[in-house]
Every structure is written in structure tokens, then in C-alpha cells.
Amino acid sequence: MPELPEVEAARRAIEDNCIGKKIVKAIIADDSKVIDGVSPVDLKASLEGKTIVAANRKGKNMWLELDSPPFPTFQFGMAGAIYIKGVAVTKYKRSAVKDDDEWPSKYSKVFLELDDGLELSFTDKRRFARVRSLENPVSVPPISELGPDALLEPMTVDEFYKALSKKKIGIKALLLDQSFISGIGNWIADEVLYQARIHPMQSASSISKEDCATLLKCINEVIKKAVEVEADSSQYPSNWISHSREKKPGKAFVDGKKIEFITAGGRTSAFVPELQQNTGAESAKAAGKRQQVKVQKIKHNDSDSQDEEPEIEETAAGKSKVKQRGANTKRASTNKKSKESNSDDENDSDEAPKKSGKAKQNKSSKGKGGDKKKKTRGTNTAAKRKLEESDDEEDTDDNDASGDDDDSEQDKDQNLSSKTQSKGKKTTKQMAEPRQTRNKPSKKQK
């Protein structure tokens, strides 16, 4: 990804080869994602016939200053690059365009031909770059929102320390924030943190003033060296971690020390754990939280093995209530069985009055169920009612409970018996007693 050194190399190449020359031809790609806020026709019209006065840069953004506005601005994104035919712009991607290369490239977004025959092209294969046409680029976003340029506007140690002390995010994430300091990208951030021996996840506010001074020095040295060699990575010092950033985990080393990769600031980050340790109050606090979570997980697993899982709930007063699932489950099971047993008993006791009422309504046609086979059809209904009223309450309930046919009553008793046997001996005993009472003749029958 092009960062400050790559964009600066492109700016210098234009400054050295294109200043004072007139644009005689412009070809703009019909790509509304890259050509932002202006139509290809309007951008073409704003370029042709204009003279290039200067090439400017801030952070990763570059713009051409023409003899009259608007000015074309280039935000390089992840794969933006400037190529000048016959001129080696930067070895970040490749050197000068060769005779057998496609020209202009199919990825060209802006192609310019100058009055001396020189041709240049801004290309973007990934389509994350942006080309705009602005009256005053420095007064509007994105350039107006950028922080101080890491090369052109270096901070003092006091300014840098004061700025970091207000930030409680990881130092790498802060360095990648273009509104804090512009021009630093992923590989530069990894390099300066390695040179300063600071962990990428170290909280910015926890860095000492001494370490801040070291980090600021490393930022200046790394960027100046990269710009000096025109972003040619083969000329970077051998002790830079950038030489091994592209290697696979387990095979990446610098000065004989192992490089590991983590995600910091949303980007893959290379660092050396042996030299870059996460220290400071914020780091210790975060480590304490992780340890606390780990202990809670261990307790949780132990309780599972005992069939009792503690569940911690924070109440409004800040107290903790511990519930044991195993105990609750056992208690709930006991309550359920008790309710089922009571329900069966209630159903059995309620069945008799319902059947009795039904039997009284149908006495004219059915009579007294179980006694119907023993008594003649000519039995007086009024006499039977009189006899029933004279019986005591226990016998009346027993006789009324036998209001249905013996066959249907026996089937129900068998079904009921099978259900109660599965619920326990106690329920079976309770259900067995009414059957014995039903079979026992009443006092009047005797």
C-alpha cells in the first residue's frame, strides 16, 4: 500500500519532469467509484490546455497545482500509483514503463499527454483510490481533515507527549489515524514501533515521555530514510522489520529474533514479542480483566462437572445472587411430581360428583350403572333416590362413583392404574383405595 514515501516519490518525479509543461490531451476513465464528485467530461475539460505549476502533497494525498483552478487531487488508496513513461517514479511497484508494457494501462484512471510528448498516468487496480477536482484542495476534505504531515510538519517531543497522553487507544491504531498524524501507514507504523521497542497494542496514554521521544525520533528517521531512497525497499537498512513482514508466521525473523503477527488497529501487525512488551497501567488493567474472565470460566466448568452451574446476576443494588441449576432442577422436578399427584387425586375425587350428576340425569334410561344388571328394569326411580338420600355421605359417594358401566369403569381403572404406577408407589396406593371402596357394598345393599 502506498504510504508517505511512495506518494512523495511520485510527487518528486512530477516536480522534476512535468513542471512548466502544458497538458495537451487528457483521457479520463469512466469509473464513478474512482472519479469522485466530477464527471469524466468535466474533469477532462478542466485539465486540457492548463499548465502544471507545482506538485503538492500532504499525508498520502497529492494534487497538481495548475495555472488556474480547479486542481486535480489524487488520494492513492491501497494501490494508486503514478507512472511516467521513460521515467522511474518508484520501485514500490515497478520502475519506468517499458516499451513492451501496455500503455496506458487498462487500470489507468487519468492519462495526461504534455506538450513535449511526455506522458503520465495515474492507475489504480484495486479501485480504492479517489480522483477529485477541487478549487482549493487544502480547505476541503479529505485534506483539510488531515493531521500534521509526518515529514513536513514534525511535532516537538512536548507536543507529541501531550497529544499521546490524551489518547487511551492502542499506539498503532493512533499512528494509523490520519487526523492525528498524516502519512503513516501499516508498514511504517510497524517499523517505527519495532525500532522504538513499543508494543503495537500499548495504550498511547501509558507511554512515558522518554519512550515518546524515542518513538518520535524513529518516525522521523524511518520516513526520511524511505524518502531518501525513493521508497525502494531493497535499500532499507537490513535491521528493519519491513524486510520480513511479508513472510509466513513461523518463518519471519529479524536479527535472529522471531516475528509474530497480530491484529492491531484493524490491520495485520508484525512485532517482536521478545523486544516489544505491552506495559503500563492500562495494559495491567486489561490483563487483570482477562485473568478475571479466565477464572470465572474455570469456575463455570468446575460447576458443570458437579451438575451445578452457578449463574451470577447483578441486582439493582449491585449484589450478586448465585443460583444453582442442579438444585433448582431437582426442586422443580419434585414440585412437578407433587402437582401431578394432587391433580390426579383431584380429578379422581371430582369425577364422582360429575358422574353422579350424569347418572341422576339419566336414571330414567340407564339406572345405577353397576346395579343395573342386578336389579330389574321396573325399579322405581323415586324409591332409589330416597334410598340414596338415606345413605351416609361415604356410601353415597361410593355408589355415585360407580355410575357408569362396569366394563367402562374397569377400563378407566386399568388406565388410571397404569398411569399412577409410573408416578410412584404413593400415588398407586391412593388410587387403589377408591377401587376397593367401590367394590364394597353399601349399607343399604347389605
UniProtKB/TrEMBL annotation:
- Note the InterPro entries from the entry: Fpg-like_C, FPG_cat, FPG_Glyclase, FPG_N, H2TH_FPG, Ribosomal_uS13-like_H2TH
| Origin superkingdom | Eukaryota
**Gene3D superfamilies, per this entry?**
1.10.8.50, MutM-like, N-terminal (3.20.190.10)
Q: Which GO terms describe its biological process?
A: base-excision repair
An example of a Gene Ontology cellular component annotation for this protein is: nucleus
- Where is composition skewed (Basic residues) in this entry? 287-298, 355-377, 437-446
Kindly state which reaction or reactions the protein catalyses. Answer: 2'-deoxyribonucleotide-(2'-deoxyribose 5'-phosphate)-2'-deoxyribonucleotide-DNA = a 3'-end 2'-deoxyribonucleotide-(2,3-dehydro-2,3-deoxyribose 5'-phosphate)-DNA + a 5'-end 5'-phospho-2'-deoxyribonucleoside-DNA + H(+); Hydrolysis of DNA containing ring-opened 7-methylguanine residues, releasing 2,6-diamino-4-hydroxy-5-(N-methyl)formamidopyrimidine
Specify the Formamidopyrimidine-DNA glycosylase catalytic domain's residue ranges.
2-129
| UniProt keyword Lyase, yes or no | yes
According to the record, the residues making up region (Disordered) are 281-446
Which sequence ranges are marked TM in the entry?
none
Which residue stretches does the UniProt record annotate as biased composition, category Acidic residues? 304-314, 389-410
Which GO MF terms are attached to this record? class I DNA-(apurinic or apyrimidinic site) endonuclease activity; damaged DNA binding; DNA N-glycosylase activity; DNA-(apurinic or apyrimidinic site) endonuclease activity; oxidized purine nucleobase lesion DNA N-glycosylase activity; zinc ion binding
Alphabetic keyword roster: DNA damage, DNA repair, DNA-binding, Glycosidase, Hydrolase, Lyase, Multifunctional enzyme
**Pfam families per record:** Fapy_DNA_glyco (PF01149), Fpg-like_C (PF21218), H2TH (PF06831)
Does the keyword field hold Hydrolase?
A: yes
Q: How does it assemble?
A: Monomer.
By sequence similarity, the record places it as follows: Belongs to the FPG family.
Show the NCBIfam families listed in the entry: fpg (TIGR00577)
Name this protein carries in UniProt: Formamidopyrimidine-DNA glycosylase catalytic domain-containing protein
